[in-house]
Amino acid sequence: xxxxxxxxxxxxxxxxxxxxxxxxxxxxxxxxxxxxxxxxxxxxxxxxxxxxxxxxxxxxxxxxxxxxxxxxxxxxxxxxxxxxxxxxxxxxxxxxxxxxxxxxxxxxxxxxxxxxxxxxxxxxxxxxxxxxxxxxxxxxxxxxxxxxxxxxxxxxxxxxxxxxxxxxxxxxxxxxxxxxxxxxxxxxxxxxxxxxxxxxxxxxxxxxxxxxxxxxxxxxxxxxxxxxxxxxxxxxxxxxxxxxxxxxxxxxxxxxxxxxxxxxxxxxxxxxxxxxxxxxxxx
Length: 283
Description:
The structure is a single chain. The chain has a domain at 15-25 and 32-121 and 186-281: P-loop containing nucleotide triphosphate hydrolases (Rossmann fold), CATH 3.40.50. It contains 11 helices and 10 strands. It has 283 residues and is an alpha/beta fold.
């Protein structure tokens, strides 16, 4: 049984069960410090007559947390799906740690991971069963030690034998983040990771993620509708609307630069005003 599951990646099962791909041992991953964790270039996605993403380009550098912001339907999920290789770009390219995902998908995805409030771990497995299962899928060396390290790091040791379906929202988020760090990713995608958490639990999760970027030099792409959180966590933000990047910059400086009192006020303007209102500042 285990000889079979080692052939697959947990991203495929945890995020897109229909996309099963081969993986590679994490011990083989080495990355020059000056190479971006993620480079997206001129991404475009067209469904029939609908353009969901239109010439989107950006990078996420090592040790950087980039916020991907925008109203529902702006193109955030489409962007994440293309970075994960779940959706193929109509035109454009995605490189993870310098590897083109369209050409070497398994190698690229071995360097990334994903967590979201809508993608919980299987609830019928305990915390430690989930971590061991996904570690097997990733081909993690020193599996037992890595799992124990993450149980301690995310304060899950006392919950190791608890089924994930019985955990609180905060505990489920910590377990999902522990899973997402099993392969020591160069790139971590977080889609509203604190959406269901109370302020205290959310603060703890934000602190852990900021430490991950600072200490492990992991590049992080973060989506959230909580602008106070974005201002606290992100080094840089991208505002998407109607599939285009309208604004990019420091979340603490952007509002002032564009005549808004707060980042939330600027978010509302981007969501409500026509694209032409920001045409002169589009990157």
